[in-house]
Amino acid sequence: MRAAVLHEIGQEKLEVLDDVEAVGFGPGKVRVRVRATGLCHSDLSAMNGVLPQPAPFVPGHEGAGEILDMGDGVRHLKPGDRVVLCWLPACGACPACRRGQTQLCLAGFVNAGTPNFRRSGGDVFGFAGTGTFAEEVVVDAGCAVPIPEDVPFDIAALIGCGVTTGLGAALNTADVAAGSSVAVIGCGGVGISAVQGARLKGAAEIVAVDPVASRRESALRFGATRAVSPEELADVKQQVTGGEGFDYVFEVVGRSATARTAYDATRRGGTLVVVGAGAVDDHLRLTMFELFFDEKRILPSLYGGGDVLRSYERTIALWRAGRVDLAGLITHRVPLAGINEALDQMRTGTALRTCIEI
Length: 358
Known about the structure:
This protein has 358 residues and is of the alpha/beta class. It has twelve helices and 19 strands.
């Protein structure tokens, strides 16, 4: 079968090969025919080494498709079922799951260290235990979440990561208060979803911050009340908050420099939500005095900060009701053979989300 493979960390291009085999099928597993997958910035971060990932590997973790086959013991799925792939499934038994913090379950990370694919040259891993830039994947049955018939594969793919992460940061982690002021730093697909989440919660002012003009324009269409470049953030902070700072600031870039900027843009007693996935050696510097004196809440948000399956259901309900725009997030479409074009669109900021149709 065909899959896009990164041979070594640091390479900028993927090679689309037709000699890749999905492996690991057996009890408790399912084989999924991938129909659509989104390109998330985390895929780029894994490719360039910011996020740890063994190579060679097939990127992609934001996918949807249909069940081809089930291993022994899988009773909740059948061939032909439409599913979204969850890269962070909950085991239901670990301490985090028992506390109700299923997004902190580590079972999915164990999958990331097991090869998902094989070719004549040896094992090939799947990013985040999935690897959706492939025609087929084999995953634990818990990673394949059934979706209703009326949800298109491209919409379902977005729900698999970016939309759930951005919406959840606003709805779950921050629990944005109605009438509040919000700034979102980084307005790709995840940041735009955070904008939509803040709008749903009734924020009065939502300022989108991004260096790319087209993304700023998009943010206004999705609910931002203002959109500025990073250089304009200080001025808009003065205009909107009288210099006090925003009630909520979302950092959706994953860099200590922007997290520091976000901290400074947050009012005393306000909330900084860290959404971007950064490098293990990129340290955010804060003084002990400012932590004590400013009393700003710093809330990391992993995968939307809530129960993932419930978040999927909620997003589908909001989409059906027309309360969130998911189709509008897909600005570009390419076949698997055009995957490197999609990577360029992500790197230059010309795409909010590129859908890879497989």
